[in-house]
Amino acid sequence: MKFVMPFNGSRGDVTPGIALGLELAERGHDVLFGAPPNLTDVVSAATASSERIEVQPFGPDTQQLLESDLVRVRIKSRNPRTRFAALSELAHHGWDDMTSELNRMAAGCDGIVTGSLGQEMALNVAEAHGTAFVSLHYCPLRRNDAVSITPGVNLPAVVNRSMWAALEALRWKSMKKRDNAQRASLGLPPTTESTPVRSARYGGIEIQAYESALFPGLARQWGPLRPFVGFIGLV
């Protein structure tokens, strides 16, 4: 089988993907791994022992982004309008190019495996190609009763679920236009459903790559589509 693994973000975001890619290759699968241009050498070095893993640049240079005026100045502005505009620009940064890149990478693949960053994009591409979808989550990101969205604050279960629902609705509202524009470019119909809903409906697997013991009760709430596997790293 062939897996496409587009990973964006920092080295910490990409490393679990490298480890998973090596395991897939060890089991006889072919892997096309996409990483930010500033991290391709890191990924290539870590996967040099496997002939089944091909590494290519994917998305913007994250080091340049972190050092840009957008991240260092505007996103920290005390002016709410400036800060909001910067956050919106950051959310859209490189989106169109990454969509085109991933669409090309996904041709003929059996599954797309991605990290937390860019999973919305990857789900749409997986749907367009009719291929399996898997994402790695490094902390709780979905609606639940057990975990508060405010770290260190214990709240009643009904409050937790309500706050997660509100956060999910706000996030979908902020990205609905962009998401549907991407779907149109891929030949997909528009949607009114958020990524978590569509991922579950599509049969996507959301691997919880952290220890369930850190969030008591969470593993009992989530079924087989959100398995807990513990932290994933390189030896």
Polypeptide structure, described:
This protein is an alpha/beta fold and 235 residues long. The chain folds into 2 domains: 2-59 and 96-143 and 179-221, Glycogen Phosphorylase B (Rossmann fold, 3-Layer(aba) Sandwich), CATH 3.40.50.2000; 61-93, no CATH class. It has helices at residues 11-26, 40-46, 62-66, 69-72, 80-92, 95-105, 119-129, 157-185, 195-202, 218-221, and strands at 2-6, 30-35, 53-57, 111-114, 132-137, 205-208. Strands 3-2-1-4-5-6 form a 6-stranded parallel β-sheet, with helices on both faces. Helix 6 (95-105) runs parallel beside helix 7 and helix 7 (119-129) runs parallel beside helix 9. The longest helix is centred in the last third of the chain and has 29 residues, at 157-185. The radius of gyration is 18 Å and the shape is globular. The two termini are 25 Å apart. The model has no long low-confidence stretch (mean pLDDT 93).
- Tell me the CATH architecture of the largest domain: 3-Layer(aba) Sandwich
CATH homolog superfamily of the largest domain:
Glycogen Phosphorylase B
Instruction: Supply the number of helical segments.
Output: 10
Top-tier CATH class of the largest domain: Alpha Beta
